[in-house]
Amino acid sequence: MRSYRYLHLDVFTDRLFGGNQLAVFLDGRGLSPDTMQSIAREMNFSETAFVLPPDHPETDMRVRIFTPRAELPMAGHPTIGTAFALARAGVVGPDRDRVVFGLGVGPTPVALTWKDGDLTFAWMTQPKPVFGQPLPDLAGAAGSLALPATAVAGAGLPVQVISCGVPLLFVPLATRRAVDNAVFQEAAYEKFREAARFENCSVFLFSKEPGQDKATVYSRCFAPQFGIPEDPATGGASGPLGCYLVRHNVVTPERAGGMLNLQGVRMGRPSHVHIAIGVTGTEITSVRVGGESVVAGEGTLYL
């Protein structure tokens, strides 16, 4: 019987029981991909990460990320959370202001901020965005969320698939109340998706309606195809979200470096995902997503 140590973190939060839960296995050597998938299903968090020796000369280590149903080429909260786990374990220390993970999308830099020997913040760099064409059937998008068509049409923004490594369907809503009232309708979504001819992907709904929290957007994310009925914080969506907001003039280039996605409130797990988009003229030149994490506990899995 072999033992595998893991850390349990809450990511995109500065306090316990908020943010998105994550398990990080600090040494995944000897685990097959099928076993990693079984472990992720057993942990039953949105994602589980496994740290492995580097397999690329430009990286410090390989990190594989699994949802309960599938491996992902990249994801935000596992990347940020893994950096905090490695800092807690002493693998990465205050002498480092940067670490490079080998993800499925390639080498992924993570910038590290320290205070009094503790890691306090991490920024991951994501691939530049790939924009799909706006989808004209706003009523179909609304119906996928059990909402009236006016909930989408009232936002005055397009429904669109965008990817910074993993494609997501972005559905803007007029109000925060509409975001809270949404209920994912699988049959209606499949009908809408097949008519619009885009691949099955997670649905990210958001509103730019202001609130007392000063967030740029208020959001939720449904990812049932990955075994995640709802995700409390989606860093892989927050990069393309920031690109969407810049592309459609919701946020000016001058403010693109300081956006905040507030997610998970409806689940009772508020998450604060920071977004920084670099813009030169009309071109998006860089995509970064950052946040904090706290260690909730640790354990040992026996195989």
In N-to-C order, the SSE pattern is EEHEEEHEEEEHHEEHHEEHEEEE
The SS-based structural class is alpha+beta
The separation of the N and C termini measures: 5 Å
Question: Which parts are unreliable, with pLDDT below 50 for 5 consecutive residues or more?
Answer: none
The major beta sheet can be summarized as:
17 strands, mixed
Number of helices: 7
Oligomer type: single chain
Strand content: 35-45%
In round numbers, the mean pLDDT is 98
Give the overall shape, derived from the CA principal axes. Answer: globular
What does the radius of gyration come to? 19 Å
Task: Describe the model.
With 303 residues, this protein is of the alpha+beta class. Helices cover 22% and strands 37% of the residues. The protein contains seven helices and 17 strands. The protein has helices at 33-43, 76-89, 138-143, 149-153, 176-181, 186-196, 235-247, and strands at 3-11, 20-25, 47-52, 61-66, 71-72, 98-103, 106-115, 118-126, 130-131, 160-163, 167-172, 202-207, 217-222, 259-263, 271-280, 283-291, 293-302. The radius of gyration is 19 Å and the shape is globular. The model has no long low-confidence stretch (mean pLDDT 98).
